[in-house]
Specification:
The structure holds 2 protein chains of 2 kinds.
Chain A lengths: L1 H27 L5 H4 L3 E2 L4 E2 L2 H32 L2 H16 L2 H19 L6 H25 L3 H9 L4 H12 L1 H17 L2 H6 L17 H8 L5 H37 L1
Antiparallel strand pairs in A: 1-2
Helix pairs in contact in A: 1-12, 3-6, 3-9, 4-6, 5-6, 6-9, 7-8, 9-12, 11-12
Chain B lengths: L2 H35 L2 E7 L4 H14 L3 E7 L2 H10 L4 E4 L11 E15 L9 H8 L17 E5 L4 H10 L10 E3 L2 H9 L4 E6 H9 L4 E4 L8 H6 L5 E8 L5 H10 L5 H6 L6
Parallel strand pairs in B: 1-2, 1-3, 5-6, 5-7
Antiparallel strand pairs in B: 3-9, 4-7, 4-8, 4-9
Classes of the chains: A mainly alpha, B alpha/beta.
Chain lengths: 274, 283
């Protein structure tokens, strides 16, 4: 067991080392700073402006959270406080099923159904909105299931107290249970945003991939992950190294999110034990 | 499970594991010695368009000739010309016809690369001139009504940087990628076809083999002719369709030995399926 976990840790270190090694030629001489100062992304013409893609990644992630968090929380509350028996069981397995849908299938659905629909409102349809909607479907089960777990672990005596005070069920849930579970819910949110940030296939297919600042909901944008997937196969030299730099950047952001998630989760646990 | 059987199965596992390691060692030694025995090495450098095709051909060639190792490296057509000229590579890969100044080299045609301009099949536009396509891609024409089409906003679909289709498109229309104002950027041909078939106002370009195949399958896309010539695989093969280019292997003099037999293999009917898989057209 120890050996296996060591292999896993070593593998992670190797990945980080590999990313550093591949991007070192740009990082070492400070050229990576131009990623943030240049405006366009035309690697073959020597322009490596990456800021629009960083913003696009963040906006897509934030947009998907805005859509998925209320729905996910509602699902969790339904599961914990309202659903009983077979309804609860089948609803839960439905969420698990949604979590198991491969992202490429969701992307294909988005490209062939959702994008033309949005395109009728405003062409071309491939947009921030399409990306955020499909991403929100992907992270919905994560949000719902982690929030449900957080709600379940809320101390029953608090709820019993609330009931004894004669609070309505709505107040019990919204004013007592959800705030008590907030650190667990937050760690779920961070996990979900790490997933949305790292998701490639969906944003590649439905977000339009035009390198520009996300100026409206209907503007096509390119996320960092989509950039790597689009161009890695044919990239050489500095172009290739710049893609590794964006990979490094993404890895670091995701790690920070994952660390925050586990920190909040542990904090939430100690609080509820007190 | 009793304790005894558990220990026994663990023993069995560990002995199997050590046997596996022995086997791995033997295999790797065999592999290394095989590498050192392969005296004959063939180096190909050049165009990143030709490289994936050459790599597939090389794999099949190596299978038929186990004592040859073929090394395929990219770096652009000019590197292919240069390396073949100074002898750094046995064969150069060049995704265009040889220029006047390169007549000291011999070109061996292995495939043709053609791209077709595609629009949604409901689009009433029958033909676009070169200038109209340039204006559309630069964002100067934003509505199909300006080119005798329906009153519909144009969605410009462009390819991602580094793709050979983009390179050919830019070269043919004498554009730079930073001049293009796309609404959608796509990776591979299939994504381009999905995007155009789902958007009545879209215009895009993809490899001609893929476009023709999808069109015949009933996907709602339409190939536009270029300079009055129909966009078909046949037109590319005959050289009539202008938006195409030859994919060449080039050598300094008449090739000899394995270089000669590899070129012969690359031009034979044994590799037709490989050419088709890469969406190129056999000459």
């Amino acid at each position: 067991m120890g050996a296996l976990s060591f292999v896993c840790a070593a593998l992670l270190c190797l990945i980080l080392g590999f990313l550093l090694y591949e991007s070192w030629s740009l990082v070492a001489d400070g050229r990576w700073l131009s990623f943030f100062s240049q405006t366009g992304w035309y690697p073959l013409e020597g322009l490596f402006g990456m800021t629009p893609m960083i913003f696009a990644s963040l906006v897509l992630t934030f947009g998907s959270l805005v859509i998925a968090l209320p729905v996910g929380l509602a699902c969790a509350i339904f599961l914990e406080f309202y659903a009983k028996g077979w309804v609860k069981k089948s609803f839960q397995s439905l969420l698990n099923l949604l979590a198991g849908i491969p992202s490429v299938v969701l992307g294909l659905w988005g490209l062939t159904e959702l994008v033309p629909l949005i395109g009728q409102i405003k062409a071309p349809g491939t947009s921030v909105l399409a990306g955020a909607v499909v991403l929100s479907l992907m992270i919905l089960p994560t949000l719902a299931l982690t929030s449900y777990a957080a709600l379940t672990s809320v101390d029953r005596s608090i709820l019993a107290g609330a009931q004894a005070l004669g609070l309505t069920q709505k107040t019990q849930i919204l004013a007592i249970a959800v705030p008590a579970a907030r650190s667990g819910i937050m760690s779920g949110v961070l996990l979900a945003s790490a997933r949305a940030l790292g998701e490639t296939m969906v944003v590649l297919m439905v977000a339009g991939n035009v390198v520009q600042m996300p100026s409206s909901l209907f503007a096509p944008v390119r996320a960092l992950t989509a950039n790597i997937a689009l161009e890695m196969a044919y990239a050489l030299g500095g172009h290739r190294a710049s893609l590794y730099v964006s990979g490094l950047l993404l890895t670091i952001i995701v790690w920070i999110l994952a660390y925050l998630a586990s920190y909040l989760f542990n904090k939430g646990r100690t609080v509820s034990h007190d | 499970m009793s304790l005894v059987t558990r220990i026994f199965t663990q023993r069995a596992h560990s002995s199997q594991l050590s046997r596996l390691f022995c086997l791995l060692g033997v295999v790797s030694i065999a592999f290394l010695s095989n590498l050192s025995l392969a005296a004959e090495r063939l180096t190909l450098t050049g165009s990143s368009t030709v490289a994936p095709l050459a790599l597939e051909m090389a794999k099949r060639f190596e299978k038929n000739n186990p004592d040859v190792r073929i090394d395929v490296q990219t770096g652009g057509s000019s590197r292919g010309v240069n390396d073949a000229r100074v002898g750094l590579a046995d064969i150069g890969m060049v995704s265009r016809a040889l220029k006047e100044s390169e007549q000291d080299l011999t070109a061996h045609l292995i495939a043709l690369d053609g791209i077709g301009i595609i629009v949604h099949s409901s689009n009433t536009v029958k033909e676009l001139s070169r200038q109209q396509i340039i204006d559309i891609y630069q964002g100067k024409i934003r509505n199909w009504a300006d080119v005798d089409g329906p009153n519909l906003e144009i969605t410009v679909v462009n390819k991602a940087e580094g793709r050979s289709t983009l390179e050919l498109f830019l070269h043919f229309f004498e554009l730079k990628n930073s001049q293009i104002r796309p609404q959608v950027v796509i990776g591979d041909n299939q994504q381009g076809i999905k995007t155009v078939s789902g958007n009545p106002g879209a215009i895009g370009y993809v490899s001609i083999g893929t476009a023709e195949f999808e069109h015949n399958r009933g996907t709602p896309i339409k190939l536009l002719p270029m300079d009055g010539k129909e966009a078909t695989v046949k037109g590319v093969a005959s050289g009539e369709y202008p938006l195409s280019r030859p994919l060449n292997l080039v050598t300094k003099a008449q090739p000899e030995g394995f270089a000669a037999s590899f070129i012969e293999f690359a031009q034979s009917t044994d590799v037709l399926d490989l050419i088709e898989n890469q969406f190129f057209v056999a000459p």
